[in-house]
Specification:
The N and C termini lie far apart (about 100 Å). The strands form four sheets. Strands 9, 10, 11 and 12 form a four-stranded antiparallel beta sheet that branches. Strand 6 and strand 7 form a beta hairpin. This protein has three domains: about 1-115; about 150-260, Band 7 domain (Tetrahydropterin Synthase, Chain A); about 265-320, no CATH class. The protein contains seven helices and twelve strands. The longest helix has about 40 residues, at about 260-300. It has about 350 residues and is α+β, with helices and mostly antiparallel strands. Helix 1 (about 20-50) runs antiparallel to helix 2, helix 4 packs across helix 5 and helix 6 packs antiparallel against helix 7.
């Protein structure tokens, strides 16, 4: 069994002839050929009217040759007229002659090339909607004019498992463009479909490689390290799409969430973690304020408090500072020990 890898096709940039110059040439061929044919026809008729019908002499052969020459020039001009094409900025034309790749024209403007270069289009087989059989469609063949502009691929939401096995929903947007037209045309069957499928595969692999959140120390997660994750996605996409001559300009996540079946449970966990974090901050602030109050009272000798009174004061301040509801003071008409 032959397992040799398919060699990659490399782009060769070519310069086409100026279209305006060739337009003048085609015009002269058609007009000159038609004028020559008409003039030669008139000459033949004149010779025949002079009583030489049916006699092949040198005088009649010369006009006949001019007639054939005029017809040939007109036909040649008509054939040459099929070689014109235009390119807008950031467009390219792949030149294919009888199945052989001849080069790529990248310069914008009005050009002329061999009229026998393939133009693409024609008929192609398209799968039916039910998946049973194929049908023929016109105008869906390979197109040899390629856009080099930036394109956006807004991926669909994918339901995959993260590194810890939690089901999540993830989607990404990819900004890409054609870098090598020969690879895009001849190394893959349909480069747009190739980009779409490989982008989906890369996003799935990315989701399986990282945890959604709450990673270990210094661990990269999908939720917390967006820049690092985007860089990893772009690197993997570039490695996958380089075979199709595609350059990835940017790749970023546009949607990231837990799957609906675990979203409510994860939301409660996040809420509990938020409450715990808030409580920790409140307690830390309350302890700092109590410590500051006791230190200020001792330094300014406002009142001398023994350990029991300090404990009561700390308890009251902690209740006031950490309580969620409004505190109502109670006036003690006696002493602290009654």
């Amino acid at each position: 069994m032959n397992t040799e890898p398919i060699s990659a096709t490399r782009e060769r940039v070519r310069q086409a002839l100026n279209g305006w110059f060739m337009l003048l040439v085609v015009f002269l061929l058609i007009v000159g050929g038609a004028a020559t044919a008409v003039y030669s026809g008139i000459r033949v008729e004149e010779v025949r009217r002079q009583g030489r019908q049916g006699v092949l002499t040198v005088g009649t052969w010369e006009p006949m040759l001019l007639v054939y020459l005029g017809i040939g020039m007109t036909v040649l001009g008509g054939i040459f007229s099929g070689g014109f094409f235009t390119l807008q900025p950031n467009e390219a034309r792949v030149l294919v002659l009888f199945g052989a790749y001849k080069g790529t024209v990248r310069t914008s403007g009005f050009h002329w090339a061999n009229p026998f270069y393939s133009r693409g289009g024609g008929w192609t087989m398209v799968p039916k909607g039910d998946g049973k059989g194929v049908t023929l469609a016109s105008g869906g063949g390979r197109k040899y004019k390629i856009s080099l502009r930036l394109r956006n691929l807004n991926g669909d939401k994918l339901k995959v498992n993260d590194k810890r096995g939690n089901p999540i929903e993830i989607a990404a947007v990819v900004v890409w463009k054609i870098q090598d037209t020969a690879q895009a045309m001849f190394d893959v069957d349909d480069y747009e479909n190739y980009v779409r499928i490989q982008s989906e595969a890369a996003v799935r692999h990315l989701a399986n490689s990282y945890a959604y959140d709450h990673g270990e120390e210094a661990e990269i997660t999908l939720r917390s390290n967006l820049d690092e994750v985007s860089a990893a996605l772009r690197t993997e996409l570039q490695a996958r799409l380089a075979k199709a001559g595609v350059a990835v300009e940017e790749a970023r996540l546009t949607h990231l969430a837990y799957a609906p079946e675990i979203a409510s449970a994860m939301l409660r966990r996040q809420q509990a973690e938020a409450v715990i974090a808030a409580r920790q901050k409140i307690v830390h602030g309350a302890v700092s304020m109590v410590e500051m109050a006791l230190r200020e009272l001792a330094e300014k000798q406002v009142v001398n408090l023994d350990d029991e009174r300090k404990a009561a004061m700390v308890s009251n301040l902690m209740v006031v500072l950490c309580g969620e509801s409004e505190v109502h003071p109670v006036v003690n008409a006696g002493t602290l020990y009654t």
